[in-house]
Amino acid sequence: MQSKLRTRRTAAPPSAGDGERAARRRAERRSRWLWRIAGYVFFLALWQFTSTFLVADFIVPPPAVILAEMTDIVVSGQVWTHFAATLRTIVIGFAVAYVLGGVMGLLMGRSRWWESFLSDWVMATLTTPGLIFALVTAMIFGLGPTGPIVAVIVTSFSYIAVNVVEGVKAVPRELTDMARSFGRSPVQILRHVYLPFLAPYLFTATRYGFSIAWKIATLTEVIVGTAGIGFMMRQQFQQFSMKGFLAWVLLFFAFALFLERVVLQRQMKHVLRWRPEVAT
Length: 280
Fold this sequence. Notes:
Layout: H1 2-10, H2 16-54, H3 63-76, H4 78-110, H5 112-127, H6 130-141, H7 146-170, H8 173-181, H9 186-224, H10 229-238, H11 242-271, H12 276-279
């Protein structure tokens, strides 16, 4: 009981500065949301104006028509079937690319020899347009799910590797030397020194690599896919249905934005909540 009373007496009340900072963060968050909503309103108004006054509505259908088409796609169940196909491609391909890029990044960051051996190939895949890999995998694997998965792996792993290399090189030498002086094993050094320091770099790699994976998976499905978002875009394009094409494009945009804003960013803020610039 005495310890509880002592804790209550010594607990410092929140200062006025803390309240001001919290109010400032709330105001900034409110302002960002207002500007974001204003951006969407401006885009929809410009779209409606273009459809009404500049071009024929069958070329650029108005937003209400596209929204109705999107609703029909969702109600029919097609969206779940084809989004599941695209998401399966991305999950398999990006998981392999993440492991491959992470291992290569660690090797290149910790050894000059591995960096000399792998750096040119990593930079080559990083700078080569994804369309080339999409076409090459389409020619090699033909129709089916294998080509898109391989294309996602080849185009995404270099983004992971480059970020991991930079993170490994930024780890203070004093930390690794101190860990070795205390007899820590390489696995312990990797777990307790490198991985915590690499967390921001890994999340950056995830965001960029995942966005590339989305684009390449959809692009490859447009070329040789038998299911998925890209396959449906190609089908609507062949039918010259701008209404259906834009509906699938906007569904793709909404789902990708959901994964970025709701899933990835929230996980990043949770893991890096000890960093004030991320937590706020």
